[in-house]
Each structure stands twice: as C-alpha cells, then as structure tokens.
C-alpha cells in the first residue's frame, strides 16, 4: 500500500470539478465492481468520494488482477479526468491503487454535514423535551442520558451510501423529520404528537450500531446480521426496561408495542426491509415522512443543481438512479 498523505490538501474537492478536468489524489471508494464492456473486456465501475461529495467512476482498462488489489469499500489513490455523460459528471480513472489513509486524509475523505452538529442536537433535545406524557418524557430522557449512544447519534451517517450518507447525517435526517412533523401535525389533529415525535426520534437510531463510520462507511457484523430496524426495536425494549427500573415510571399498556411497531415498519413494505407494514395512523405518518425526506435528499443530491449550473454535461438527465428507479431531470425549470 502507498501512503500519499501529503497530497490530500493539494487536490481540488470533487464538488469543485467541472467537465473535462484532470483529477488526482486520495479518495474513498465504494461499491467497486468488475463489469464487462460490449467488447467483452473487463472494466471497473465504482463510486469515488471525498468530504465534499461522491461521483461515479469508470476505469476502462482495469484488469482482473488490478481489481483484486483494490478494496470494494475502502481508500485509494486515483488519477484521471472528468467526463460529462448523459447529463452526469463522471470520473474516468487512468490509474488507481489502494492506500492506507492518514488521519489528515480521513478528515478530508469522509463526507460531513455542513450544518452545526451541536446546534442540531440542541434543537432535537428541545423538540423532544416538549413531549407531554410523563412516561414519554421519562423514556426520551433515558435515551438522552446515554452519553455513548448520543455521541454516536451525533456522528453517525444516516446510511452507507443512500441518503444523508455523511457524518452527522443521522442527526440531520432526524431533525428534518421532527421539524416536518411539527409543521404537519396541526393538519392531522387525530394523530398522537408524542407517539409521532418519539417514533421519528427512534426510527433510525439502530444505525448507531448497524454502521461503522470511523474509517469510511460500512456495516458492522451486527449490522449485517441484525440490521438497524430490528436493532432499534431491541434497543427500545431495553431502554423501556431501564426506564422502569431507574424511575419507576411505566409506559401505558399499548405504548411500547406501538413504538416498536413504528421502528419495525418505518420502511413501509417488506421488500424495502420493513418487518411489518405500518398499521397505526402514527406508523403510516412516520413511514411517509421518512420516505419523503430520504427520497428528496437522494433526488437533490443526484441533480446537484448548484454545482453543475451552466456546465455542459451533454444532457438534462442523470443516469438511472437505482434507489429512485428512474433518471433525474437536473435543471431548475425556472432558471
């Protein structure tokens, strides 16, 4: 492996690159796969990322031997040029090799939220402090008092690569949902506000154990075997038991079941990982809000309107995005 730690500060960030420009430096690599061209020759397809964002990459002259030397998910030093392709900027890699990143490199390579983490966490704590039912307040205080868990909650990405896939992304995603719920709940007075807000706070908290994010983003062994949905339900059961043991406060008869149901059902349907289909008004509301924020974030990230405004990308559509099942129309229609 090669240590190229001195070069990270000299290269331009991915978000600064335009069409037909040279790039060189260390990157995080993910989803590396060996494909086959129409001519039957092997090529590398992957995602390369740094602190500023992620771009699809291709290496047309990648041999099977070279492919075996680079990680599917890890860190590489790569050089090449950018190329517009069907409305999207992609990286054409000329050379690539695995590296062991230095601490300075990691700070430049791991994407991070642009928002203030301490301020976001304070907002989440304030919103959750507005719960009305004594048992619900005691439950959220049990979570907030777990300093190790809350430290992970502040730092974790919301996903490995899908949406809010950056340090602080889980916190940002959760705050977005809480703010959205507070704006929409007055339209649906029949919904229980405490249950909705608690469900949103807890729906993805299992990702603090599902994901590893100190050296790139990947799944822990527990994440692979259990997953954040079931993990979140297990954590909720344990916290409810802890709350009753330390405070003497008990949740109402159906509250724990309903909250666990929200965690287990928030992905909506089994094909997307839900253990149950949402079956309460609050569970439906949480699932729909979660999908709204995730899909909107994915689409905005794919469009990258601010970064590519005025650039000639040879088309108005991105490549087909597997998480959306469609291409994304990039231009702002009113500009």
What's the gist of this structure?
This protein is an alpha+beta fold.
Strand content: 15-25%
Q: Assign a percent range to the helix content.
A: 40-55%
**Separation of termini?**
47 Å
Provide the residue-averaged pLDDT: 89
Q: Based on CA inertia axes, which overall geometry fits?
A: elongated
How many structural domains are formed by the residues?
A: 2
Biggest sheet strand order reads 1-2-3-5-4
Question: Biggest sheet, in brief?
Answer: 5 strands, mixed, barrel
Give the second-level CATH assignment, the architecture of the largest domain: Orthogonal Bundle
Using the CA coordinates, give the radius of gyration: 22 Å
Helix/strand order, N-terminal first: EEEHEEHHHHHHHEEHHHHH
Report what the structure shows.
36% of the residues are buried. Residues 1-9 have low confidence and may be disordered. The protein is an alpha+beta fold and 335 residues long. The protein has a five-stranded mixed barrel with strand order 1-2-3-5-4. Strands 6-7 form a two-stranded antiparallel sheet. The longest helix has 23 residues, at 281-303. Strand 2 and strand 3 form a beta hairpin. It has two domains: 5-109, Nucleic acid-binding proteins (OB fold (Dihydrolipoamide Acetyltransferase, E2P), Beta Barrel), CATH 2.40.50; 117-299, Hypothetical protein af1432 (Orthogonal Bundle), CATH 1.10.3210. The chain has 13 helices and seven strands.
